[in-house]
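Standup notes, structure subgroup. Blocker cleared on the 2'-monophosphoadenosine-5'-diphosphate input:
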Amino acid sequence: MSDRYVVIGNPVAHSKSPLIHACFAKQCHQQLVYDRLQPAQDGFSPAVFELIAGGAKGANVTVPFKQDAWRLATSLSERATVAEAVNTLSFKQGEIVGDNTDGVGLTRDIVDNLGINLVGKRVLLLGAGGAVRGVLLPLLALAPAQLVIANRTIDKATVLARQFSAYGDVVGGSYVDLAGQSFDVVINGTSASLSDALPPVPAGVFASGSLAYDMMYGKALTPFLYFAQSQGVATLADGLGMLVEQAAEAFMIWRGVRPQTAPVLQMLREQMV
Ligand code: ATR
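Run returned:
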């Protein structure tokens, strides 16, 4: 019988993970099945125990269960511990092993796919929710000169910056504080794009030659990327590359082989037009 994996979320019907992992499995000649699971909002733990009882080998975890997965795991990687969120579970030898591949998905997309080196760069992260917490450690590991977190609710940004201060030069504050500052890389980690909104980022934050990155993706430019384009930013990227890269890292954890991401990313882009 093929090894079984699932993506657990609510809602989960839209998830591209089954398609991505099917492509990886084919490419790497791995026998596995990968499907979707949508427990009730309060039904995460029983769903995982049922999966384990049925012999499943692992799961990807998406909204709104990443913190439930972090609590349920019996052992955690450092990046999952620090993120306080888990997007990849492995079931082995009675353990529920939790990892978080979101951050490395983002940094691989920026460094390997977009060819941008973050060493010594000024990086601005918009938002201070779960998505931002999940990417802070891998971003700081790339040794930017400074990482600034700006959030509507200022306290959340300052608390996050304090919590991560041991890992690099990280400062938290408001959008207003950004006036007069510019950055080499500006990453939208807010959920504003979901409601077609633009975070209140002041004009002038984009340094010349900067990258604007939105962790969300869609058919059209997100409001943030549209704004960046209107400010003259030439390098725009959405979160589709991050999605494929976080999946590749999960696949590597489960199967011990690293799939090629470029053809899968290209296939998804072609499907979206
Ligand atoms: P996620 O897990 O996707 O990060 P979250 O933890 O609910 O979701 O966090 C959402 C983030 O998007 C928060 O930083 C939120 O700002 P607040 O903390 O001030 O609520 C931010 N956000 C959502 N909509 C926004 C908008 N229209 N403008 C600016 N920030 C927004």
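Discussed briefly. The CA atoms of residues 129 and 190 lie 7 Å apart.
Next: hand off to the docking folks.
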